[in-house]
Every structure is written in structure tokens, then in C-alpha cells.
Design a protein that fits this description.
Length: about 425
């Protein structure tokens, strides 16, 4: 049982996670593959789904790993100090407190020297730090590029392949290599699928259900003890965990001695999927994309001017705190209400099953568990063409699949021939 005190305990305990006996990367959990109906199921007001959340459309999402929590100030400053030590970012004092790539000049984030009331990252005596008490709050005033660069940094630390291999070029190239085994920002489809927590019958408005109040998420006028902060009113990641929190443990700016939270985690164990801060996604934003979205792992438009954000924020009202809510922002602009979390593509391939059918989206370990013959990473079953799927809700989507493997993969009753 988690101690109802500093959320730092929650972050530490999350560093070893897994599913079905397979170890997840540190701080992440496995999201199983599956199909869901993406878009607005629950209008913020009657008959009023925002047009960019329509039409409802069925989407297949491969299994992936995702951070349980948003990346924190403390985690991001570890990368900043590493980059500065390697000479890959400049002294922010020469750029009005902004952190820039030393070769390309790309803006990564701000510091208290650049936007004092907005930021919690400090710069003094050649070292990045965090203003006291904000170590476990989500990092903000970070650009889309700064989030992608952090994903590469984490990949480097764990000796994994970079998902953004071109960012050190001049000019940098920010295209994502989805085949790489490192870390990246989630697609919009992955983000919404994870936020819904596997609840697809019925579809709910929020990650946990259809009700919301100030004890379960951080939104505008929610009444949390951080609302008295100046300009930025984030709560520590995982703060809404069902505990009775003590001011003595958190030193929040509000006067309340205690604050009782409800458990805001969804059924995948993910915290702060709505509220607290917007989260950068990998996709370019297009308000009409849902009308042309592919069925199989959509990755957004090929180009654009703004990247997508999901999850809403501490200064968004209740109507914006929804699983389906979409927004966007310029890549190079740091905001006081935008952060991020990372995902990692799960290695998978085609598995020839004992009955001569083909299991798709399985890891080698899962294939071995069902006595199959693994065809290799990156392969996929040769299945029928993508089905034409009407915009229907609930169990009707189940007819599109022949079955779901018990280990979380998708099994199609097709030829066992695998293709690259």
C-alpha cells in the first residue's frame, strides 16, 4: 500500500512495472493492442461534439508502453545538466534564460530567468535545478522539440535506438522513426486509447468514468490546494491517488491543512491523463483528419504547422477535461500549461500458431507461450483488406476481429504467411 504522503514515493514505486511477466521500461506500463472507436462519444453539452472530434472512427492500435506519470521537473533537469555537460545546449544566460540547442539553436525550454512566474527550472552557477517543492510537478514551458529531444536523451541513456534520429542535423529533421525501439511522443490514437483505460463498453467521458469533481483531477477552480500558486497551478504527478494528503508533506500554497483526493488513475494505472497539463503528441494537428484517418495505427497528417496536444490543463474548465478533447500549439513556443509523457514501441511480429492461423502483434515471448513459431520482429500477418467500419459504439466493434489473444495480441484467422 502506498503511503499517503509525498508523491515522490509513488514515482519511485512505479519504476518497476510489467505485464504478463514481461518487464516494462522503467516508469512505464504495457498497453495491450486492440481496437476502439476514436472521437467524441460524450458531448460536453447536448448534441455538441466539437467538429474536430468527429466523425467517430474505428482504430487499431498496436501494443505499446507508456509513462504512468507526466515527466517531472526533476527528471527533465537531469537531461538538461547532462546536455550542458556534453556541450549540446548553450548557457541560458546568453539567451534571456531560454535553453537552446548549441548547434541548431532550437528552443527546448525556459527557466526561471526567462519566464519567472511560469517556470520552475532554475539556472545558477552552471547547474540546472528546480524551485523547492516543485520537483515532482510536471515540467512545463517545454516546447515540442524539447520534449522530443528528451525522448532521444532517454533512449541514449538506455542504449536504445533514437526515434528522432535527425535532430542533430543542421537544419534538424524531426521526423519520427516508429520502427526504432527507443522513446518518443505518443500518437493521438495511442494517447486516447491509453486515456480510456480499456473502457469501451460503454465509452466514458473521463479516464475513470462519467463523473468529475475537484478531488479527482486538477482543473480550473477545482479547489485543489495549489490554486493559490502564482500563474502556474500544477499539482504533483500522481497527486490524485485516493489519499488524504497533508500540507506538512507537500507545503502547498493553500491554507488547508489536509486535502482528500479520489483515485484518478484509470484501469491501466495511468495518472493525470486529463487535467494538470496538456501533453504533447507526435502528430501534426489537423481538425479534419478524422474524416480520412486510416484504421491501422494512424499517425496523423504528413505535415502541418502545429503539433497536437491532449489531456487539457489546470486552467481549463470542466468541458475541456475529456478523453476525446483535442488541441494544438506551435512547436517552438513554450507554454506554462504544456508538458508531456513518453511511449515506447513494443517489439512485435507475426507468430505462426499451431492451428496454422497467424497471430499478429505478438512479442517473441508471447509467441513462445502459445507454442507458435515466431517470424521475426517487424513482420506482420498478411490479413484481409481493412474492413469498412461504420461509426458504431460498444460491442459492435468486436465483430471486426476474429479474436483477441489472451496475452494482449490480436489474432486474425488468416493465412500463416508473414510479410515484412
Amino acid at each position: 500500500m502506498l503511503r499517503c504522503g509525498s508523491v515522490a514515493a509513488v514515482v519511485v514505486l512505479s519504476m518497476v512495472s510489467g505485464s504478463a511477466g514481461l518487464a516494462a521500461p522503467p516508469g512505464m506500463v504495457l498497453i495491450p493492442s486492440g481496437v476502439f472507436e476514436m472521437g467524441c462519444h460524450n458531448p460536453p453539452s447536448p448534441d455538441d461534439c466539437p467538429p474536430d472530434e468527429l466523425p467517430l472512427h474505428a482504430v487499431l492500435v498496436d501494443a505499446f508502453y507508456i509513462d504512468v506519470y507526466e515527466v517531472t521537473n526533476e527528471q527533465y533537469t537531469v537531461a538538461l545538466n547532462w546536455w550542458y555537460g556534453e556541450g549540446s545546449i548553450d548557457d541560458p544566460s546568453g539567451h534571456d534564460g531560454m535553453v537552446l540547442d548549441s548547434v541548431t539553436g532550437t528552443v527546448y525550454c525556459g527557466t526561471t530567468e526567462s519566464v519567472p512566474s511560469y517556470n520552475r527550472i532554475t539556472w545558477a552557477a552552471g547547474t540546472f535545478g528546480v524551485t523547492p517543492g516543485n520537483e515532482d510537478h510536471p515540467v512545463v514551458v517545454v516546447t515540442w522539440h524539447g520534449a522530443a529531444a528528451y525522448a532521444n536523451w532517454r533512449s541514449d541513456q538506455e542504449q536504445k535506438e533514437r526515434c528522432y534520429p535527425g535532430i542533430d542535423q543542421d537544419p534538424p529533421v524531426w521526423d519520427c522513426d516508429f520502427a526504432a525501439n527507443g522513446y518518443r511522443l505518443p500518437t493521438e490514437a495511442e494517447w486516447e486509447y491509453a486515456a480510456r483505460g480499456g473502457k469501451h463498453d460503454p465509452y466514458y467521458m473521463y479516464p475513470w468514468g462519467d463523473g468529475i469533481d475537484g478531488t479527482i483531477a486538477n482543473y480550473q477552480t477545482s479547489g485543489d490546494p495549489y490554486e493559490d500558486a502564482v500563474e502556474i497551478e500544477t499539482t504533483p504527478v500522481g497527486f490524485y491517488n485516493g489519499c488524504l494528503h497533508q500540507k506538512a508533506d507537500f507545503n502547498w500554497p493553500g491554507s488547508a491543512a489536509t486535502f482528500q483526493t479520489s483515485d484518478g488513475a484509470n484501469d491501466y494505472g495511468l495518472h493525470d491523463m486529463i487535467g494538470n497539463v496538456w501533453e504533447w503528441c507526435n502528430d501534426w494537428h489537423d481538425s479534419t483528419y478524422y474524416a480520412i484517418s486510416p484504421w491501422d495505427n494512424p499517425r496523423g497528417p504528413g505535415s502541418g504547422t502545429h503539433h497536437a496536444r491532449r489531456g487539457s490543463t489546470f486552467h481549463g474548465g470542466v468541458p475541456s477535461q475529456r478523453n476525446a478533447r483535442r488541441w494544438r500549439g506551435p512547436d517552438d513556443t513554450p507554454y506554462n500549461s504544456v508538458g508531456f509523457r513518453l511511449v515506447s514501441t513494443r517489439s512485435r511480429g507475426a507468430c505462426c500458431l499451431p492451428d496454422d492461423t497467424c497471430g499478429a502483434h505478438l512479442t517473441e515471448a508471447e509467441c513462445n507461450t502459445v507454442s507458435g513459431i515466431y517470424e521475426g520482429d517487424g513482420t506482420r500477418c498478411e490479413c484481409a483488406p481493412e474492413p469498412s467500419v461504420p461509426a458504431i459504439s460498444g460491442v459492435g466493434l468486436g465483430i471486426m476481429l476474429v479474436g483477441l489473444a489472451a496475452v494482449g495480441g490480436v489474432v486474425f484467422g488468416r493465412s500463416k504467411r508473414a510479410v515484412a
